[in-house]
Design a protein that fits this description.
Helices cover 50% and strands 13% of the residues. The protein has 359 residues and is of the alpha/beta class. The protein folds into two domains: 143 residues, no CATH class; 177 residues, Glycogen Phosphorylase B (Rossmann fold), CATH 3.40.50. It is globular and about 70 Å long. It has 15 helices and ten strands. Strands 7-6-5-8-9-10 form a six-stranded parallel sheet, with helices on both faces. A four-stranded parallel sheet has the order 1-2-3-4. InterPro entries: YkvP/CgeB_Glyco_trans-like. Pfam families: Glyco_trans_1_2. It comes from Faecalitalea cylindroides T2-87. This is Spore protein YkvP/CgeB glycosyl transferase-like domain-containing protein.
Length: 359
């Protein structure tokens, strides 16, 4: 297969940091207010834009792609581009999806949402029709999508990280630390607040602190709420390298899903890739989520996490973990053994390499 090596040219650090910050603000705005009207404006720009031109044709002619790999996006124009590239190049198409972009098992009172969903389904169906290999991230999604499209959807997720010096991390023996790393949108903020409330209600537990690391922007009300708890600290955003070390040093890592119906349905077939990271780091996992969510089912199958399916279960399940170090270590060990046995380093890469070489 043809390939081209590219190098990132050096930029002025101040200018680069400013551009990154500006881009984050724009991204945060559209992530927070992901209204259908904004999506349609973007689609109109692409619909009337002159992207079918000599430049893309010359690129395809020069590069001669043999395989086109595309995630199943929730935008129309990417599927139109895929159709065009397939027609011009004759390349094999490989699709991957980690979220439910197709089913009608969603909740919304907006007619625009449903119009957008129905149009998107048409484009996804066209992309699946021209594909040679299709991947998804969970068994539940694979089973459901095979019924929709009458073709195979293989499972391709995340493999175990090569975690170095795990045993060299010294935990704070005088403090039981709980850590959450990730976005707090899609209803997760409410779930985190419920954990904060329960933690503050305890009076007979070891000294504990819940550290929340997230790049999500907080409103003034959210910031006041989350910083009003005695045993919680909002730490803001950190780099991916720092996140790995923070997770390893934690006594308990927290995974939450929203329990609100709209977000439950939106994320029901998804699997948080952070779960594999937690297991790779020998973390004790405390999870809160809907029992039908794929992430929660994955943790149940692994038998390596303390799981709450409702807010009312937090108190009885969290307290024993805070009180019992041996219990935390047993769950951490089971999590590590599960990921080591089922998703060892190279597992997913070998699947992908084999499939692409034999497409």
């Amino acid at each position: 297969m043809a390939g081209k090596e590219v190098l990132l040219t050096e930029m002025d650090n101040t200018k680069e940091e400013k551009n990154i910050e500006n881009n984050k603000k724009v991204y945060s705005f559209f992530r927070k207010f992901k209204l259908t009207i904004f999506l349609w404006i973007r689609e109109l720009i692409w619909l009337f834009g002159n992207w079918k031109n000599e430049r893309i044709n010359n690129y395809l002619e020069d590069f001669k792609p043999e395989i086109v790999f595309m995630p199943i996006y929730d935008c129309f124009y990417m599927h139109r581009i895929l159709q065009y590239v397939k027609k011009k190049s004759g390349a094999k198409v490989v699709l991957w999806t980690g979220d439910d972009m197709y089913s009608l098992k969603q909740f919304s009172l907006s007619p625009l949402f449903w119009i957008n969903r129905l149009i998107l389904r048409k484009y996804i169906k066209q992309s699946v029709k021209i594909s040679s290999i299709r991947y998804c991230i969970t068994p539940e999604q694979s089973e459901e999508y095979q019924k929709y499209f009458s073709v195979d959807f293989k499972i391709l997720g995340k493999e175990m990280k090569q975690a170095k010096d795990i045993d060299d991390i010294t935990k704070n023996k005088s403090l039981v630390s709980l850590v959450y790393t990730g976005n707090i949108d899609r209803g997760r903020f409410k779930s985190l607040i419920k954990i904060c409330e329960v933690l503050d209600s305890y009076h007979d537990i070891p000294e504990s602190c819940f550290y929340i690391y997230s790049g999500s922007s907080l409103s003034k009300q959210m910031n006041k709420k989350i910083n009003g708890f005695r045993h919680t600290k909002f730490m803001g955003e950190v780099s991916s390298l720092e996140v790995f070390a923070i997770q390893k040093a934690a006594d308990i890592v927290v995974h939450v899903e929203s329990l609100d119906i709209k977000e439950r349905l939106r994320t029901r077939l998804s699997l948080s890739t952070k779960i594999i990271d937690y297991m790779s780091n020998k973390c004790c996992i405390f999870a809160l989520g809907w029992e039908e969510a794929s992430s929660i089912k994955f943790l149940e199958r692994s038998n390596s996490a303390v799981i709450c399916n409702g807010y009312e279960e937090i108190d009885k399940n969290l307290k024993p973990l805070l009180m019992n170090k041996d219990l935390r270590e047993r769950y951490a060990y089971k999590a590590y053994q599960f990921v080591k046995m089922n998703f060892p380093p190279g597992y997913c890469r070998n699947i992908l390499k084999h499939d692409l070489n034999n497409i």
